[in-house]
Amino acid sequence: MEEHYADSKAPKPLNLQARATRDDWLDACDGGVTAAQGFKAVGVHAGFRADPHRLDMALVVADEPCACAATFTRNVFCAAPITVSRRHLDDVGYGIARGIVINSGNANAATGSVGLETAERTTEIVGEALGCPPGEVLVASTGVIGQHLDVSPFISAMPQAVADLSCEGGKSAASAIMTTDTVSKEAAVCFAGDDIGYPGVTFTVGGMAKGSGMIMPNMATMISVITTDAPILPDVLHKALVNAVNKSFNKVTVDSDTSTNDCCFLFASGEAAPGALPFALDSSAYARFEAALDAVCQTLARKMAADGEGATRLVTVTVAGAANEEDADRAARAIANSPLVKTAICGHDANWGRIAMAIGKSGAHFAQENAAIDIMGLPVCRDGLTVLFDEEEALKRFENHEIVIDVDLGAGDAQTTVWTCDFTHDYITINGDYRS
Amino acid sequence: MEEHYADSKAPKPLNLQARATRDDWLDACDGGVTAAQGFKAVGVHAGFRADPHRLDMALVVADEPCACAATFTRNVFCAAPITVSRRHLDDVGYGIARGIVINSGNANAATGSVGLETAERTTEIVGEALGCPPGEVLVASTGVIGQHLDVSPFISAMPQAVADLSCEGGKSAASAIMTTDTVSKEAAVCFAGDDIGYPGVTFTVGGMAKGSGMIMPNMATMISVITTDAPILPDVLHKALVNAVNKSFNKVTVDSDTSTNDCCFLFASGEAAPGALPFALDSSAYARFEAALDAVCQTLARKMAADGEGATRLVTVTVAGAANEEDADRAARAIANSPLVKTAICGHDANWGRIAMAIGKSGAHFAQENAAIDIMGLPVCRDGLTVLFDEEEALKRFENHEIVIDVDLGAGDAQTTVWTCDFTHDYITINGDYRS
């Protein structure tokens, strides 16, 4: 009697497309939101938090008004600063802006018309200090919901903060936007313009993010600010940002795109090649910029997932062989959001039954007898049946920082990757305790 | 400056329809799956589990072949016994059956063609022992996934199990189907036939369920067997069951309807009124039966939710004022499945911000400024704004066994209720440990 798949034959490798590898023309570089030319930043303690040692306000400012694009949460309960920033980008998500101010400690969410006035007033305060119209200032907030945001820390802290803006300020800005993040998150890459029509020029894309709070469904407060010194027009910038966000931050489990305060901003100063023609949509220069932006966003997204509340492991879930993109996404998110899968990883249990159930209920189209699963490179399921695997080897691989789950639905050619983290006692402790 | 909603006015009561109260013609009664006339049951240790003190096989048998209806999981990875039981009910979900056998300890899921043979063979073994065709026997399994189910315990235990079938066997049967359930789950009600055309007759509806495993999204293994002595034809029975399940078991958080092994069976012996005309679909008798069935299913569903893994509280989420049924369900499930809401309850934190975010991202249609929320009867949000509440009173109410969350979306008249539990350290311990 056949007991398991592997009794009679060796498991076939999964039909995965090659994992994204960084292109060799792309170089990692130090820094974050001030890595690109034409930007200064600072993080200060303004007074939104009680602890005087904790930074709670970040400013990122371009030397001149420049192209800006943004993506915002679609949560009905969206926060006041989201509404105001959207307004300042003419409700289309792109335009010209000078900078952004972000406070932590209070989300200015569920605060009604008072909250909107506070957010507008905040942009006036920044505009006065920078000498620009408030309409060129964007604003974001993260922290407690349902409490009014006091505007006075902006007033008292702004003059010194503006005076302290610097090209090295990216690091303190990244710290100032943290809430329950355990580490600040920065990333930057650069690429040469030589063979794309900008000889002798090096372009940089860099950014910072706060993630966490919660990398679970529902309500991650995700804020990211990215800058580049490439010359790009606002509408083109917006297109690139939407694409990049869909392949990165929006792949950090379900609905991280829909919390009250989620937002991602991208500024382009053009300072790497002043006076040069902007990147055209179908050019090789734009293609390289897109890839560089993807790299920054995915690096930040992975850092967010790895720093989920209470997390000890980054979990990378790839679903291949799906009938279409939507099915791949649905199945991957079902796995990544399954508390049972996430607790199994916490318990170092290579439990493919829980993965199978998650894809089975996801709504993705496939036949049970065509499904195949690898956990950390170990085949555990083929043709919908158990493959016997080396449990000791599995335990060893669970020591890795990144746990890779690969699924082949055997129903088509679509593939996607999402990122999440394991689910631990610390998650319960943090969230049973912290009023967010 | 207006700080909060309650500064200027007293919070309006929510626009909730009256909570379902038990009709006065309906009486609770003792027992479960053998409360109705014409049924016997037994729970035994057959040997699927190593522990000889743990019951692991349940039989529920009608004295005569009778009407039967069932609902089954829609999970693509459905277990072998699901496929076989569906087949025995002619793939329409209703027919004539004699009884059902359920084992715990092994789910016979992801076991391929071997699993199907095992499930068919099981029905033959039961059929031989009862003296009925295997096609009149249904089968269900719960436990570990991806391991083959040994058929020999069925063979060795069946003669004694059949000999021990009794009208008092409902209790041991309910114990035998438990997995990580901490208590067995039974419920029964009865109603008089006097004013519905069956003078002098008392009809009973009773049942048992196993829930838990996991009351989280994805993959609750839910099995329930319900019996009645009312005279009802199979197709009518099926209609009643589908309706009842949709208002009860399927309301115990998202996707509990789609795990590999979920199933619910309903048998109708007609023994309360032998020879009487069956209940017609539009009759008052049928209406009473429907209400009685709803009561049994909802009682069992609430017991399942309250006994979620690691749970300390039953959480009842009602969303009213929705634009339509679907929106009400979507919003209620978003709340009930939010780990942040569930950990907040574990931490006794009346955190309406997390509830607001859950409904905001649910996709339900509403305007933020019309939303209102009560937690345990305390108004915490009106017009989308914070209502100041007595935190000490809230802490006191968190001591209750049942935590009630009520939401009014202010967008229409549709309302629904779902049940879940809080999210505790024990959940992580159980699931980081138990290979299910």
Kindly state the mean pLDDT of chain A as a whole number? 89
The total number of structural domains of chain A is: 2
SSE order of chain A, one letter for each helix or strand: EEEHEHEHHEEEHEHEHHHEEEHEEH
Helical percentage of chain A: 25-40%
**CATH fold title of the largest domain in chain A:** L-amino peptidase D-ALA esterase/amidase
CATH superfamily of the largest domain in chain A: L-amino peptidase D-ALA esterase/amidase
The major β-sheet of chain A equals:
9 strands, mixed
The largest contact between protein chains, plus residue counts on each side, is:
A-B, 69 and 70 residues
The quaternary state of the protein chains shown equals homodimer
Assigned CATH architecture of the largest domain in chain A: 4-Layer Sandwich
Q: Which structural class do the helices and strands of chain A define?
A: alpha+beta
Low-confidence stretches of chain A: 215-219
Taking Cα atoms only, what radius of gyration of chain A do you get, to the nearest Å? 23 Å
Write the layout of secondary structure elements.
2 copies of one chain form a homodimer.
Chain A: E1 26-28, E2 39-44, E3 57-72, H1 80-88, E4 94-106, H2 112-130, E5 137-144, H3 152-163, H4 170-176, E6 185-192, E7 202-210, E8 223-228, H5 234-246, E9 263-268, H6 284-306, E10 314-322, H7 325-336, H8 339-346, H9 352-361, E11 372-375, E12 378-382, E13 385-386, H10 391-397, E14 402-408, E15 414-421, H11 425-431
Parallel strand pairs in A: 4-5, 8-9, 10-14
Antiparallel strand pairs in A: 1-6, 2-3, 3-4, 3-9, 6-7, 7-8, 10-15, 11-12, 11-14, 12-13
Helix pairs in contact in A: 1-2, 2-3, 5-6, 7-9
